[in-house]
User: Which sequence fits this backbone?
């Protein structure tokens, strides 16, 4: 289990699309899909969660290490915005998205707005 994911309470079972399901009759199909596409169809069963699971730890590390900011913004302001983005993805991964819908929407809106500023 990875650092950021473990810190928010996720376990190996959360990442169902990474499980070794060799006993499943579909495992040969999934293996072929991984060879052709680099992933298998299980990642599309909950694509929103798979995308959030990819973005969240990378966004966390980016926020911890970034020293560049969007034009006209201070590092403190930028880190506050990044924190809102992180929190939105965390809530998606920990099933708090529906109960904190406004926070998730705000974080995802900020992610969209500042997507091209996510470089250092």
Assistant:
């Amino acid at each position: 289990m990875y650092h950021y994911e473990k810190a928010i309470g996720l376990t190996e079972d959360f990442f169902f699309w990474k499980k070794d399901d060799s006993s499943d009759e579909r495992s040969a199909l999934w293996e072929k899909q991984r060879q052709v596409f680099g992933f298998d169809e299980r990642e599309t069963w909950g694509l929103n969660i798979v995308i959030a699971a990819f973005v969240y730890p990378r966004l966390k590390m980016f926020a911890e290490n970034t020293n560049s900011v969007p034009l006209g913004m201070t590092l403190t302001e930028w880190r506050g915005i990044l924190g809102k983005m992180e929190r939105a993805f965390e809530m998606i991964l920990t099933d708090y998205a529906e109960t904190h819908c406004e926070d998730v929407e705000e974080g995802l809106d900020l992610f969209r707005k500042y997507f091209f500023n996510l470089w250092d």
The chain has one domain: 3-117. Helices lie at 3-7, 27-37, 47-65, 75-93, 101-113. Residues 22 and 28 are 8 Å apart (CA to CA).
